[in-house]
């Protein structure tokens, strides 16, 4: 399916709600839960969820929700999660991804980490919110706007479920993660009591926002 | 393939001697990062100098070239440690401490599980990567090969194999 067709599927409000609900979760979602969240019946939810799977927007996994196994445990429930595939449409056609990859490759080869970070910090400053966000919740809203999908930890650390530079960061991790950190440092520079630092974990963005730059360590 | 492990070897040319204050922050991070590697999922082995916690004293490829040499269960385990742990911070600051390499400075290759690779073997693989680019016998994260592809490449290198190996594979679907 072409990107434009897959994205067009989300024009249906029920499908959109189902997609957004599943995509925002850290774990796989069963049909019943998704149906309830979208406010529709289980059969209708299943129909739309499978359409989203066929379009490559979601993917399925099978697991017994009860934790039981063996005879009598029943058929494994069908579970859904966001697919790792990226979809995008540009009209007219543009290919910034190829350009970004080439520029990153050249920067990596030439060892331009410092220059890239300086540019990222300047850009971050230019993108600052006015007035600056007050407190972690507003920081989270600002980061959400930029696509990071922030989630607060139990200890108040803001972890990002999404890396807006994912494909590039997989090819050039130190270069691109350093760029990302500098961008966020610039973006949040004027926010009192919030700092950013690297704390990479599998499946997450490399950077976290933490309460109070002064009380660290 | 469960019978294979992934070896990684990389070299770094120091900008200053290891006891120089400008390298102090790098040196201070060695023990915690090595401890994190030892405890990471899928970690198998890393090279250390006899009686020392790491391999920074070994300089087989030049007086100012430190080496890092380890074995992992698979690509994902090594990836998650290298780029999704505190190790990434060391890499992010690499330009402060190490010279930029014009040639490849990091190589991956598959080994039989249980085999403890030697530095000579590692230097050969790095030289192969530098001379011929990525291949199933010496590759990088961005041009990775599977253990199956590496095994296939090894088989076709054996004299008399190659052509004979192919039909057999086709005859066993699945």
UniProtKB/TrEMBL annotation, chain A:
Superkingdom per UniProt: Bacteria
Stored CDD domains: HTH_ARSR
Transmembrane domains' residue ranges: none
Stored Gene3D superfamilies: Winged helix-like DNA-binding domain superfamily/Winged helix DNA-binding domain
Designated name of the protein: Helix-turn-helix transcriptional regulator
UniProtKB/TrEMBL annotation, chain B:
DUF3291 domain span: 6-143
Identification of the protein by name: DUF3291 domain-containing protein
Alphabetized InterPro entries for the sequence: Dimeric_a/b-barrel, DUF3291
Pfam families registered for this protein in UniProt: DUF3291 (PF11695)
Region (Disordered): 137-174
């Amino acid at each position: 399916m072409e990107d434009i067709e897959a994205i067009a599927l989300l024009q249906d409000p029920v499908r959109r709600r189902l997609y957004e609900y599943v995509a925002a979760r850290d774990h796989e979602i069963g049909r019943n839960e998704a149906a309830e969240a979208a406010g529709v019946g289980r059969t209708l939810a299943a129909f739309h969820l499978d359409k989203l799977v066929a379009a490559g927007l979601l993917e399925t996994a099978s697991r017994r929700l009860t934790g039981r196994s063996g005879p009598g445990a029943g058929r494994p429930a069908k579970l859904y999660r966001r697919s790792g595939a990226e979809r995008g449409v540009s009209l007219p056609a543009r290919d910034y991804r190829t350009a970004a990859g080439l520029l990153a490759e050249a920067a990596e080869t030439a060892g331009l980490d410092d220059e890239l970070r300086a540019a990222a910090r300047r850009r971050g400053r230019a993108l600052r919110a006015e007035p600056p966000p007050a407190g972690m919740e507003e920081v989270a809203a600002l980061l959400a706007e930029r696509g990071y999908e922030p989630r607060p930890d139990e200890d108040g650390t803001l972890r990002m479920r999404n890396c807006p530079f994912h494909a590039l960061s997989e090819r050039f991790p130190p270069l691109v993660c350093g760029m990302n950190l500098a961008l966020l440092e610039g973006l949040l520079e004027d926010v009192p009591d919030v700092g950013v630092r690297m704390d990479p974990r599998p499946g997450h963005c490399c950077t976290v926002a933490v309460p109070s730059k002064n009380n660290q360590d | 393939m469960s019978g294979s492990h992934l070896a990684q070897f990389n070299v770094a040319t120091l900008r200053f001697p290891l006891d120089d204050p400008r390298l102090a922050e790098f040196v201070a991070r060695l023990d915690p990062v090595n401890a994190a590697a030892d405890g990471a999922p899928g970690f198998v082995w890393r090279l250390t100098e006899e009686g020392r916690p790491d391999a920074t004293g070994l300089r087989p490829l030049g007086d100012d070239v430190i080496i890092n040499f380890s074995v992992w269960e698979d690509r994902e385990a090594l990836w998650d440690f290298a780029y999704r742990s505190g190790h990434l911070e060391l890499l992010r600051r690499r330009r402060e401490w190490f010279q930029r390499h014009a040639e490849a400075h990091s190589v991956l290759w598959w080994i039989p599980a249980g085999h403890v690779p030697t530095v000579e073997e590692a230097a050969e693989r790095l030289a192969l990567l530098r001379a011929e680019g990525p291949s199933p016998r010496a590759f990088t994260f961005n041009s990775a090969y599977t253990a199956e592809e590496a095994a296939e490449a090894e088989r076709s290198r054996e004299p008399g194999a190659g052509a004979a190996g192919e039909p057999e594979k086709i005859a066993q679907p699945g």
